[in-house]
Amino acid sequence: MTTTTNAPEYVARRDKTAAATVRASRKPVRPGRVALYALLVAAALSALFPILWMISGSMQTLPELLKGDALLPAVPQWQNFATAWVKGNLGVYLTNSIIYTLCAVAGILLVSSLAGYALARLEFRGKGIFMALILAVMIIPAPAMFLAQYKVLLALDLANTRPGYIFILITTGIPISTLIMRSFFASQPKDLEEAAALDGASALGIFFRIMLPLAKPGLAAVAVIQAFAVWNEYLMALVIFNDTSLMPVQRGLTSFVSAETPQPQILLAATLISIVPVVVFYLFAQRQIVDGISAGAIK
After folding, report:
1. What is the CATH number of domain 89-294?
2. CA dist 225 → 56, 112, 144, 229 (Å)
3. I need a surface site. Which of 76, 89, 92, 229 has the fewest CB within 10 A?
């Protein structure tokens, strides 16, 4: 005897079963989790507020900005950006910073990857002393080395020159970058290197053909860290350069810092222009940053 089931009753039972399954799969909302999310949202808003204030202030008039009670400009002053670009000579300064950043990061990547691989894989006398010297250099504050670095540039006839400044930027970024690359190379298995050595590959061939392609996440992490450091450098440029046309973009921002003729709205516009290349670079490199951290390049 065949038992038939009424269609509406079957659909109702199925819906009740599905609803019970969904309720059982849902985790109860814990007060601690809600508080954590609220704290993260507050932290994100506190980090975004200065940027939003800078964007708003860069499009305000001076009286409106000094009054400080307007969250948004009454009438956006787009000419502030043109004034910042022309009077601040930002085109020259931005070009200088791009040149310095590209050259310095390329030099840092080359030297630190070679040094990091040597410290991770090679055994040589004085290796511990070399590591101690790298750590010692990192402990010394950068301004404390300005005099010695400037004397070296004078001896090499590189003061007030682009190559001299790039040379200082490279030497400043090598210590921390070498430690990062050493940590990354040390975490890699030796099987591929041993197999390449059995096939007759030289030490440099193993490095450039095997290890360096594997080190892309570490190289990306170093490139991002050093690019930000070079872009934001200002003090050493004041020591080395006498010619303002060689200064980086941070020097251009000081053109609007004056007690006699304060122009904070133009300064905000110039600052906003100066961070655009950094933001664009970060948007393209953020995936490499995450890959580098997850791969163990930064520990």
Report:
1. 1.10.3720.10
2. 29, 13, 22, 6
3. 76
